Amino acid sequence: MNEMVFILVFLAERAMDTMNFDVMxxxxxxxxxxxxxxxxxxxxxxxxxxxxxxxxxxxxxxxDTFSTFGTILSCKxxxxxxxxxxxYGFVHFExxxxxxxxxxxxxxxxxxxxxxxxxxxxxxKEREKELGEIVSLRLIYYQLLFNYYxxxxxxxxxxxxxxxxxxxxxxxxxxxxxxxxxxxxxxx
Length: 188
Known about the structure:
Layout: H1 2-19, E1 23-24, E2 27-28, H2 38-43, E3 47-51, H3 59-66, E4 72-79, E5 85-93, H4 96-106, E6 110-111, E7 114-115, E8 117-120, H5 124-165, E9 167-169, E10 175-177, H6 179-187
Antiparallel strand pairs: 1-2, 3-5, 3-8, 4-5, 6-7, 9-10
């Protein structure tokens, strides 16, 4: 029985080494070990996000770039319905240390003349929560800014109204300020 398991493991490893990323029915195939326990995948440990990928970069190129940092559990370039790259992808390492090493070494690196961004993968719910907090802070900022400008405009209008009311038309059709206004303007 142990010999049969050994043969199956050997064949699986051989398939991963020789057939991974081969094209089948117009799409590259990905062969990886099955992760029966989804907690590792869902925890986000070892998961990184890569963006600004050149459209020519495929799963194999990304795998080759990141495999030097540790064992890769999953590696995928996001594609549209026609199989064209969307310019970003994901790599899931077996360990957090490998992921951190990849982030440190590859973030900012040029790959096919494009500067890559590589960072820790943040699930959509966390990103939306952070984005919501940022939007709330921006709304508060803009409300305060709006209130300040309204105050400045109202004060300016009040000053203009007061200034207008302090003018007296003279007989020669010119406007003059009262003497008290002129002295207060000189001291300001």
